[in-house]
Amino acid sequence: MNNIHFYKYQGTGNDFIIMDNREGQYDWLTDEQVNELCDRRFGIGADGLMLLNKSEDYDFAMKYYNADGREGSMCGNGGRCLAAFAHKLNIGNGQLSFIAVDGPHEATLDGHNWVNLKMQDVDFVEEGPLYYYLNTGSPHFVKFVEDVQATEVFEEGRKIRYNERFAAEGTNVNFVQPFENGIFVRTYERGVEDETYSCGTGVTAAAITFAGKEEKEYVVPVQTLGGQLEVRFTKTGERTYDNIWLCGPATLVFEGSLHI
After folding, report:
1. Residues 131-188 pLDDT 10s
2. CATH H superfamily, domain 3-119+250-259
3. What share of the chain is helix, strand, coil (3-state, %, to 5)?
4. Where is this site: Could be important to modulate the pK values of the two catalytic cysteine residues (predicted)?
5. 240/196 Cα distance (integer angstroms)
6. CATH of 126-243, one of 3.10.310.10, 1.25.40.10, 3.40.190.10, 3.40.50.720
C-alpha cells in the first residue's frame, strides 16, 4: 500500500488533483489508479490529475492526466493551477517557466489566486460554414449559438466529439454566445467525456475565433459556468495569433493524504 499526499485546486470550477513529484515518488501511479482518484463518488473527484515534476531547464515540468486516466494534451486551467501550486512551494518568484506536453509556457501571478498563463501561438484556424477548428495546445471545435444556456452541451458535444472525423483522436467541443463585449463559453471535454465547468484551452480557442478582422491586440472577457476568465492576444495575420495569455483565478480547495 502506498501513501500519497495530494492538493485539490480549481480554476473557475475546472478542478484538479495535484501532487509534488519532484523526487519521482508518484511515478508508480497507473492509469487505472488516476482514473479511480478522479472518480467523484469513489475517489477524490476531479477533471484531471497533475504531477509537478522536476525539470533541468525550467522551473518545473507539467504532467497532465485526464479523468479517464490517460495522459492528456495541454490543459490551460490545469497549467494555471499548477503554477499557483508551484508558487505555494516557493518555486520561482511570481514569474515561472515550465514545460508541458505542448512545449514551454510562462506564468505570472497577481496576488495569491490570479494566474496569467502564456499559451502557444496559433498558426492556423480552420473556418467552416458553421464552425471553427483550431489547436490551442489541445484540439477545439468551436460553434457559435444563439442561446448557450439552452444548448444541450453533453448531447450535442458528444455527437461532434464522436463523429466520423474526430472519433479516433477526439476533440473538445465549445458552444459560444457573444454577450456585451465578451463571450459565454460552455465546453464538452474529451477525456472527461462530459461538460466541465470551464476549459482553459477551450476558452482560449473561443476567444480567438471571436476576434475581429483587424490585426491588433485583443482583450476578451469570458464567462464560464465556473466563473470569469480573460484572454489576451495579438492577431498577427488572417489566421495567426501570438502573445496569447489565459488569465484567471486558481485556488487551493483542500489538501489531504490517502492510502492506495
Report:
1. 999 999 999 999 999 999 999 999 999 999 999 999 999 999 999 999 988 999 999 9
2. Diaminopimelate Epimerase; Chain A, domain 1 (3.10.310.10)
3. 15, 45, 40
4. 140, 189
5. 28
6. 3.10.310.10
- Report d(CA 24, CA 96) in Å as an integer: 21
Task: Tell me how far CA of residue 50 lies from CA of 20, 64, 124, 131, in angstroms.
Answer: 9, 5, 28, 31
Active-site option among 38, 81, 199, 247? 199
Catalytic residue among 38, 75, 81, 247: 75
Q: What pTM, to 2 d.p., does this model score?
A: 0.96
Question: Taking a C-beta distance cutoff of 8 angstroms, is the pair 157, 195 a contact?
Answer: yes
Active site residue 38: no
The SS3 call for residue 198 is coil
